[in-house]
Amino acid sequence: AQSVSQHNHHVILSEAASLELGCNYSYGGTVNLFWYVQYPGQHLQLLLKYFSGDPLVKGIKGFEAEFIKSKFSFNLRKPSVQWSDTAEYFCAVNGAGANNLFFGTGTRLTVIP
Amino acid sequence: DGGITQSPKYLFRKEGQNVTLSCEQNLNHDAMYWYRQDPGQGLRLIYYSQIVNDFQKGDIAEGYSVSREKKESFPLTVTSAQKNPTAFYLCASSRGLDSYNEQFFGPGTRLTVL
Q1: Is the peptide bond before B8 cis (omega within 30 degrees of 0)?
Q2: In what order do the strands lie in the sheet containing B19-25?
Q3: What's the rounded mean pLDDT across residues B94-110?
Q4: A96 and B99 in contact by Cβ < 8 A?
Q5: How far apart are CA B35 and CA B55, in angstroms?
Q6: Contact at 8 Å (CB) between A37 and A100?
Q7: Sign of CA dihedral B12, A41, A3, B77
Q8: What percent of chain B has pLDDT over 90?
């Protein structure tokens, strides 16, 4: 069965610090990978996605993620966080051609001004 | 504005009562989904629908029911058979069930069963 692990439950950073949130998945076939973000009081929205091609994908607001197939990982990064990045971040995966989107448990990021 | 609306934002019900959560989208999307979000557990799929009058069970469908009589609407009923109904419920839609389609989410309904 597919599963997604986000080992960091709560991350606290100061502004301008670098960010890396871990995401590991278990699935034997071709996968599509997503990062969603939920800002306080707002809808869950797509941050970035990977289907194929360049394993380093860039999303909105300066975020990027790298797909490392050998490690079954899709870690989210940002070189310098801002207070406005405070949110909950969800990694999600589905098998290519599959209907279900599997979500990780989420990582809450708090950025201190 | 195109988007997904869910109502109400907060809902309180007594134990043993059925309750229906509304989800409407004006994005002209074919596929719609219901997720449940619990603290520390992420999002779990309850039901999904590819087209009108068709829907499929997700991972945690027991105690829930849905209907899809119109393309724009996908209401979720939380029945008295659901053992732990207090949760945050999210509705989503996408152009199709193809795995490459981005899912767009509504603002959610927080259900509390007293």
Answers
A1: yes
A2: B4-7, B19-25, B76-78, B64-66
A3: 85
A4: yes
A5: 14
A6: no
A7: positive
A8: 71
Mean pLDDT across A25-51: 90
Model pLDDT for residues B32-75, shown as the tens digit of each residue: 999 999 987 889 999 999 999 999 999 899 999 999 999 999 99
Measure the CA–CA gap between B10 and B22, rounded to whole angstroms: 12
* Residue type, position A6, single letter: Q
Report how far apart, in Å, the C-alpha atoms of A47 and of each of A35, A81, A107, B85 are: 5, 15, 14, 29
- A28 Cβ contact partners less than 8 Å away, ≥ 6 residues apart: none
Those residues of chain B whose CB sits closer than 8 Å to some CB in chain A are 4, 33, 35, 40-45, 48, 50, 56, 58-59, 90, 92, 97-100, 102-103, 105-108
Report whether pLDDT(A100) > 80.
no
CA distances, A64 to each of A43, A75, A86, A102, B96 (Å)? 20, 8, 16, 20, 26
